[in-house]
Amino acid sequence: MSRILLTGATGLIGGAVLHRALAMKTDTEWVCLVRASDEEAGRQRIAARLGRFTNALNAQRLAQRVEIVAGDFTHADTIADPRLDAVTQVLHLAADTSWWAQEKVHRTNHDGTLALARRAARMPRLDRFLHVSTAMICGGQPPATVDETRYPDAEAIHLVPYSASKAAAEMSLASHFADLPLVVVRPSIVLGHTTLGARPGSSILWVIRACDRLRLVAGSRDGTVDIVPTDWVADTLVEMLARPALAHRTYHLSAGMLSRTRWSELGRTLDRVDPAESPRHYEEFSARDRATLHRRFTEVFGMDEAIKVAMFRALQAYYRFCELDVTFDNTRLLAEGFAPPPALSEYIGRCIETSGEIVDQFREDFGQFAVGSTPRRDAARPAPALPETMPAREINTRSPSQRRGSISS
Ligand SMILES: NC(=O)c1ccc[n+]([C@@H]2O[C@H](COP(=O)([O-])OP(=O)(O)OC[C@H]3O[C@@H](n4cnc5c(N)ncnc54)[C@H](OP(=O)(O)O)[C@@H]3O)[C@@H](O)[C@H]2O)c1
């Protein structure tokens, strides 16, 4: 029987995984490592996340079916709880997904992941450690198509410390945990849900909608972005855990050549689903052209509130990602018979009809763009005032400790 340790169950993808897995009614046991004062508080946090996918009663019922270990994965190596000893698979989703809190994201995503790996190394029945990284470990200068073998690259220049921390974690896992049954999966951009739209969490839907509202495309109108829906990612992860064997040690969970999103096509789709705004004509600009973006943003959204200033800063950085025009090859996944992802154009209508205002959607995601500490997403919080200019810094993949020739765990 499988006994799966899940980290990140209170997050966007983790909640979707748990909801899918529990709905399947297999005899798999799920153990969730959750930050909470005690088990009951942890269960209530899980139930709240599951409540984004189903009604409150069912969410409570499903949450009763998981075991809770209250704790922080960054200290997993000190968790003596014997319930972890019988784990057969780990699905490690937890991460600090904030972009700019450099030291904190490195401590969590790199050092914390190594702490979890040390605990996993003491699980005698473990046969798979599924580590969820990101396709964005490619940094800011990838080729047009990236396959799984090209990265991580210690010399890659990163647009944000978040992706640098994920790349560093991959490199340290590979070099220090050779005996761990490690499989690395790298989702590209995860956005929306094919049937529930934006309800479980909109992720960067606000970015797509803001680009559309501004009528500005970074780079070329024929450029693409690689986007996949949350439920497809969840299904794929659950199936990867269930398969007795996988052919590779690294996989992209990405749209690939067949399902990637081309801006010009997206504009035509949006003309259909949101005809009040049609016809759309996107202007091309360089993501480094701050003046054009600032002027257009001020005209369309205004710059009269701190939240809009923060949104402008985040959007500037996202435009740099969009301008990369990179596709993450998913041939490995498809060749092993996993279902291909739907294209964004197939479900963006559902996302938009379940969405509120663009600025409010950004507000929901604001924690990701805080410069210092990262408030938890389910905590109600006002947006603090931020400086208007905060350029995306270029970050080298190697952590300070790796540059000194050692790891910091
Ligand atoms: N979403 C995307 O577009 C995307 C794309 C590529 C890769 N990924 C990767 O996919 C994974 C999941 O992403 P997501 O979007 O679901 O993230 P998310 O919504 O930000 O959720 C992050 C999860 O990690 C947990 N966590 C963070 N620090 C923790 C700690 N110290 N101890 C225990 N739990 C901790 C959070 O718990 P709390 O609720 O307690 O904060 C939350 O459950 C991440 O590894 C991310 O890098 C995501």
TrEMBL record:
Chain intervals with Polar residues compositional bias: 397-409
Domain Thioester reductase (TE): 6-236
InterPro entries, sorted: FAR_NAD-bd, NAD(P)-bd_dom_sf
Renumbered residue ranges of the record's region Disordered: 373-409
One Pfam family of this chain: NAD_binding_4
Gene3D superfamilies, sorted: NAD(P)-binding Rossmann-like Domain
PANTHER family referenced in this protein's UniProt entry, alphabetically: DTDP-D-GLUCOSE 4,6-DEHYDRATASE-RELATED (PTHR43000)
Protein name: Thioester reductase (TE) domain-containing protein
Taxonomic source organism: Methylobacterium bullatum
